[in-house]
Amino acid sequence: MSDQNPVVARAPSSPFVPSASPASEKQRRGFAAMNPDQVRELARRGGVAAHRAGTAHEFSSDEARAAGRKGGLAAHSGRKPQDQEKVEAPTN
Question: What is the pTM of this model?
Answer without folding.
Answer: 0.41
